[in-house]
Amino acid sequence: MLTPDYNYFIKLDSWSKKEAALIISGLEPDQYRHIRFAYKHLDFEKYPELIQAYKLYKLFLSIDFYRHHEYQSHPVAYVVECKKRDWSVPDELFKLTRERYAKQMELSSETAIDQTKDGDCLQKEKNYLLKTLGSMVMMYIFKQKNSRLGDLKNVNVSQVVDDILQFLENNNLKLYGLGKSSLNKRIGDGLRLVKRDQ
Questions:
Q1: Hey, which of 22, 88, 92, 113 would disulfide with 29, CB 3.0 to 4.6 Å?
Q2: How far, CA to CA in Å, does 165 sit from each of 18, 62, 138, 151?
């Protein structure tokens, strides 16, 4: 059984929840890439080493990583959450995580001045993406011609969100961090921007 190359993995900008659970459990993620982390798909008799990793994966699913935008699926985030919950983290990984976090803090303080300029660009980019989403929703409504969705002037956002969530469920897809209320808000914001700029 291979152990993960912590020095490599800590340099990545993001980990999936499955990768994080495997790495922190001392398992090499590539060895288990073919295994879905759903209880009904896991064979714990064949892979007993996955029991702890699966529990950690379920723990990560319960954590709202999106409350800190800079923190979402960052390797440091997973290690910090484990430490908060007294979950064991390999010493080498913890040491590398602390070093990476210290470097990031140093770099972020150097770039704080540039962030004001970047903030304007980010807001423009966010508005552009919201307008794109709003336009796509309007095209969807136009194409569907279904009265329950409303019309181009009065969109029934909650019905559109229900359609999106139903589509995702039917196709076994997940949108992490985008629940019903989050989608409602983003689509509503996008539609307002589209109408404002017409």
A1: 22
A2: 23, 20, 17, 20
Q: 10 Å Cβ neighbour count for 73? A: 19
pLDDT tens sequence across 30-66:
998 888 887 777 888 888 899 999 999 999 988 887 7
Q: Contact, 144 vs 151, CB < 8 A?
A: no
Q: List pLDDT tens digits, range 89-116.
A: 999 999 998 888 877 666 655 555 555 5
> Which 3 state secondary structure label does DSSP give 98?
helix
Question: CA 90, CA 99: separation in Å to the nearest integer?
Answer: 14
Q: Give the residues across from 150 on adjacent strands.
A: 155
The dihedral through the CA atoms of 72, 76, 78, 83 has a sign that is negative
Q: Are 190 and 126 in contact (CB under 8 A)?
A: no
User: % helix / strand / coil in the chain, to the nearest 5?
Assistant: 65, 0, 30
Query: How far apart, in whole angstroms, are the C-alpha atoms of residue 5 and residue 93?
Result: 9
Residue 155 pairs in a beta bridge with 150
Q: What's the token pair of residue 77?
A: 């985030």
- The tokens of 185 are what? 């808000």
